[in-house]
Design goal:
This protein is of the alpha+beta class and 305 residues long. It has eleven helices and eight strands. 58% of the residues lie in helices and 21% in strands. Strand 2 and strand 3 form a beta hairpin. Helix 2 packs antiparallel against helix 3, helix 5 crosses helix 7 and helix 8 packs across helix 9.
Length: 305
């Protein structure tokens, strides 16, 4: 706890946390120089009464000098009323009369947003992670219109993400992340523009679903693929059957073509695999047109005799 308090105090002194500076390094240095030269002058002249004025001037100098970094703007209040922005660089305020409410960082910022167990349009629980890129384009509005613009952007992004998830189905979230990001960017920009903040882009980083649902979706996808494969196989078989019908008609008109085709199939089989095929003599005779013709003529000759 003491270390955390010391760190917070140093941030307040240097202005790194965005909070108003108590003292700046330049102001402290200037105050020390004024105090050193004043004390030296009082010692040389022997005027002890100069010590109090020198100390007062040194304190005023230390508290009046402020520094804003290149990307920062400081809001100055005079007796609680807004007087304007100061920075970047060196600027001065009147101690006690004026104060710096806070420093606004005008660089592009990144905010992580997550929505856990949010329901999609088709009532599927999902966990969605997104990244919001935003920038303060009007520091005056960001200071005067909203108390903590960083928390406002973060909470607004989270609620908008939940609403957008509820308007889309799971398939859209997975397949159209860029579209969802553009939609969120438009919605958030409309909400934050009055605060002087622009949402540059929103990127959907990850969409996670429960393991049980992943298994069910995997089984469904596998069933769909099997169904499609069977449909394709059935279409192929129907097409092949049609070709067989056409071939049968041709072979019926030309028996010799069927015999030649059978002989060609036997030749290709023995050629590719180098095997010996045993066939019945009836099958061999059926492939010999001359034998068939002689077999058909033998009964005719006997009847003539």
């Amino acid at each position: 706890m003491p270390t955390q308090g010391f760190t917070t105090l140093m941030d307040r002194v240097s202005g790194d946390s965005g909070q108003p500076q108590i003292l700046s390094a330049v102001g402290i240095t200037a105050g020390l120089l004024v105090f050193t030269f004043g004390m030296a002058a009082a010692a040389l002249t022997g005027a002890a009464w100069l010590m109090a004025p020198v100390l007062a001037i040194a304190l005023v100098t230390a508290f009046s000098v402020r520094v804003a970094k290149q990307w920062e703007r400081g809001a100055v209040l005079r007796f609680g009323r807004y007087k304007g922005l100061r920075g970047p660089g060196l600027f001065f305020i009147i101690p006690i009369v004026e104060s710096v409410s806070r420093y606004v960082d005008q660089r592009v910022r990144v905010t992580d947003v997550s929505a856990e167990t949010a329901l999609t349009k088709d009532t599927v629980p999902v966990n969605v992670d997104a990244i919001v890129f935003w920038v303060v384009w009007d520091a005056e509005k960001a200071i005067l219109e909203v108390q903590s613009f960083f928390n406002a952007v973060s909470l607004c992004s989270q609620t908008s993400l939940l609403e957008s998830i509820g308007r889309h189905e799971l398939a859209e979230l997975i397949a159209q992340r860029e579209k969802l990001g553009h939609e969120l960017q438009r919605i958030l920009d409309e909400k934050t523009n009055p605060w002087g903040i622009t949402i540059q882009s929103v990127e959907i980083r990850d969409v996670r679903i429960p393991l049980e649902l992943q298994d069910a979706m995997s089984r469904q996808a596998q069933a769909e693929r099997e169904k499609q494969a069977r449909v394709i196989l059935g279409s192929a078989e129907a097409e092949i059957a049609g070709k067989f019908v056409e071939a049968a008609k041709v072979y019926a008109d030309h028996p010799a073509a069927l015999q030649l085709r059978a002989m060609n199939i036997i030749y290709e089989t023995t050629k590719e695999r180098g095997t010996t095929i045993l066939m019945p003599t009836s099958m061999v005779d059926s492939m010999n047109p001359a034998a068939l013709s002689l077999a058909g003529q033998a009964p005719a000759l006997k009847s003539v005799a």
